[in-house]
Specification:
Structural class: alpha+beta
Helix content: 55-70%
CATH architecture of the largest domain: Up-down Bundle
Shape: globular
Number of strands: 4
Number of domains: 2
Strand order of the largest sheet: 2-1-3-4
CATH topology of the largest domain: Glutathione S-transferase Yfyf (Class Pi), Chain A, domain 2
Length: 219
Amino acid sequence: MIKLHGFPLSNYHNKVKLSLLEKGVPFVEEVASPSQDAAYLEKSPLGKIPFIERSGSAGCLIESQPIIEYIEAIGPKENRLLPADPWEAAQCRAIMSVIDTSIDAAVRPVLPAAFFGQSTTPDQVARAQQGVLRGIGALQRMAKFSPYIAGGELTYADLAAITVMPIATVVLKALGGNDPYDDWPQLHSLFALLRQRPHVQKVEAEGAKAFQDFMARHK
């Protein structure tokens, strides 16, 4: 049995949780926050979430992408969420990488200003916006939307998109900007399609409640 450590405020926790649900891999959750305590670092060497444990095995597995690769390897073979063709599988991984390293990474420096009222500058916000737009431009050239982001079948790239990409909207709008996806109808259609799935509804509802509770505590 897999134990998933993390909490639903984390988009990467939600990406892993949604992957487990959609793949049909049994798991349990344990609420955990990032920590630099020595005992915690024995499980998560960078002190981050999410990470997973496996019953009967020593050690843990960190970072969402390796965790997803493991989920695909152990899950039901008939429920493939990564294409069998190596080229198409690599394209899915490339899309996920752009989402993580361009769009999500661009807004991380200004996230404390959006949620905690920490100071920021117009230049920092502008750099975040520019970084997100650069990532969007890359994805627009890479994505197929036929109807899913990488082609005709649901993949982990779709699960990454629906769990990770919305944070850019929340952060930039909180800082007085616009929704960076306003002029991207294909993405809105994809999200509408994905939000028909019960597991997506579950993960998004849990994330929304966690966010509301968090903001209420930090008013």
